[in-house]
Amino acid sequence: MGASPEYSGGASDAVLHVPAEVFEIAVESMGAYFEPIAKVDRRTLATDFLDLARCIKRTQELDEYVPIRGKKLLDIGSGYGTNLATCIAVFGADGYGVEPSGVGFGQGYVVSRKLFAANGIDPKRIMDSPGESLPFADETFDVVYSANVLEHTQNPEQVLREAVRVLRPGGALYIELPNFLSYFEGHYMVVEPPILWKPMLAWWVKLIFRRDPAFARTLQTKINPIWCRRQLRQLSRVYCLEQVSLGEKRFLKRLATPFVFEAQVVKGALERLVKLVQMANAGNWFGHLLVGIQAHYPIYLTLHKCPNTKSLS
């Protein structure tokens, strides 16, 4: 971003922009927080985090799998509001978000409301709430969406239960998650072995990369495809759910085509490794191997709630 912190992105030039105030808060909150963790300059981190072109690409992918135009959508953990604002202003969703208020890194609630107001979107669409206790009645939303949030929650199982509770019959759930059985840790920007128990990640980043392990201890490293399927089995005892995917086909397609990095900080950390993998990946054998050992990254948890049904309990 450099010296010009106010910007707009891609197809949204006439619709959305990130004010300088929002950018500077991001620099000194999430940027400052993750700078020693990811070993990346805080302004670069804030630029990637608020990149509107990246938000448009991510929302296009969401819209391909779960059409959102004209749909009532909930973004759980809406962060600084850029993804949700894109859903509303560019893709025509009737969007709402929840983000718990806080200080330091947790300034998403206040900052997202500033971003919404600056773009002529009602700030009241974002509510101060954790995902474990959504302030909405049963069957309120056509689409429930979340990106890279569950690993930061106190109780991801309860967040999933709440997400399905507020989903209407016929509605769709779409959640992007890290896979801690995979090869990459996206917060520290390092390769990792499969995390089989919670202390492993903290030990790994401390002993191998000499990073502060305190943040690693806060992450829900139990999240992986096995955990997802277990949660879906439990939810299916209460709700009729169908068309479940964890994003395996999407991962295989992505690995078999020229790789485009969404964030510059990820590109810097992984570009050489990804090029080597793709050069050796004839027939996508490596992609199929990773899927077979449940190590694909990330997880895209997608499901539909059966139409015209009530809870099974």
Overall CATH architecture? 3-Layer(aba) Sandwich
Principal-axis shape equals: globular
Tell me the major beta sheet: 7 strands, mixed
How many H/I helices? 11
Query: How would you state the average pLDDT, rounded?
Result: 88
Gyration radius from CA atoms, angstroms: 19 Å
Domain count: the total is 1
Major sheet: order of its strands? 3-2-1-4-5-9-8
If you consult CATH, what is the topology? Rossmann fold
> Uncertain regions: pLDDT < 50 for 5+ in a row?
1-14
Classified by CATH, the class is Alpha Beta
Strand % is 5-15%
- Bin the helical content: 25-40%
Number of strands: 9
Give an overview in words.
This protein starts with 19 loop residues before the first helix and ends in an 8-residue tail after the last strand. A seven-stranded mixed β-sheet has the order 3-2-1-4-5-9-8, sandwiched between helices. Strands 6-7 form a two-stranded antiparallel ribbon. The chain is 39% helix and 15% strand. The chain has a single domain (10-305), classed as Vaccinia Virus protein VP39 (Rossmann fold). α3 (52-65) crosses α4 (82-89). It is built from eleven helices and nine strands. It has helices spanning 20-38, 42-49, 52-65, 82-89, 108-118, 156-165, 199-207, 225-235, 248-256, 264-279, 285-292, and strands at 72-76, 94-98, 126-127, 141-147, 167-177, 184-185, 190-191, 241-245, 299-305. The model is unreliable at 1-14 (pLDDT under 50). α4 (82-89) links the parallel β1 and β2 (94-98). It is α/β, with parallel strands linked by helices and 313 residues long.
